């Protein structure tokens, strides 16, 4: 889509100031493409240069992370934290990147949290538990200076799960001499974690798609579903899709795809991935109707609903065309930015139900918000109560996106809806807080 001249200037400036950050450019472009009609309706946002300010992180930290492996060899990695926007609350987001997306996603949840991301260039593959622990301790030895329950609240993301959050929390506690539970989310249930946080992104994404299907008087019953990935998000999407009557026929990891038209068995996947930390191809050892496709492309398999839940840019324009041609009617992005701009264009043109990550996967960070609420009040809610709150939040996210899309002239376009609804709230808060 063409940008107005003003938005094009902003975009070119972002490229110039952030050379090489192609995924950041991609995320910015997608948002500002939606904002033309917003600036027409709210010229004060333009005057206050809200978009220009949102595109520049409030603070960025890059730090050295030295650690020793099991043979006492010293390694040097690099850690990052990008504190993007605190207009709505303390910075909040995973230990990865794509902090820009997080601002709008967090805004959509209705929970008072700003946007941040962080990460490192450490590759956990093949590292022992002790090595991961030493790395996490060294990482926190720097990070602790800029985080806190009222300042910045990191969480897990790709490659950072409960184990890592535990090591990070232990080190933070030791450094600060405080049991400040709300400083990290995704904690274990026994030390301040929330019920449903592990399930939240997958459950939430399925709830969002269920709302989209419901708007067409449709549902998951009898639907054939693809879920890429086999991490947290993918596993709990599988669980919820099956609970709602759909059938997940394929999943994947970085080695390939498993395909079983009879449906993928949840318990086997949980055992393989959560308990034994093994590769997905081993699924076929115990399920003879399943086949493993080494380096296969999951999007080649015909489906009704697709949940890209692995990583960035995993659905290309070509994949999107294939999905549409094979009869796919809905896509829910469990991962962040898993569809390339060409792919997004294909879905929008085809008029299928397309739930972009910043709306569809907002249940994860929303439930982190619920974890913070419980930590602040020293409460621990039950599973059902927490799940009901998550479900309501996802209904609200859906309604916000649908209404904003309608109001700004793109009915049914949840990309436009999510960008505008997420943006307006942040822009109002920034305007109210003056030039900061
Ligand atoms: O992409 C995401 O929304 C997350 N990784 C979750 C962040 C969080 O703070 O729970």
Output the keywords.
436 residues, binds (2Z)-2-iminopentanedioic acid, seven-stranded mixed beta sheet, alpha/beta, single chain
Assign the structural class, choosing from mainly alpha, mainly beta, alpha/beta, alpha+beta, or little secondary structure.
alpha/beta
| Residues in helices, as a percent range | 40-55%
Q: Which ligands accompany this protein?
A: (2Z)-2-iminopentanedioic acid
pLDDT averaged over residues: 95
Secondary structure tally: strands: 12
Strand composition percent: 5-15%
Largest sheet entry: 7 strands, mixed
Radius of gyration: 21 Å
Order of helices and strands: HHHHHEEEHEHEHHEHEEHHEEHEHEHHHH
Distance between the termini: 31 Å
Shape: globular
- What is the number of helices? 18
Strand order, main sheet: write it out: 9-8-7-6-10-11-12
Low-confidence stretches: none
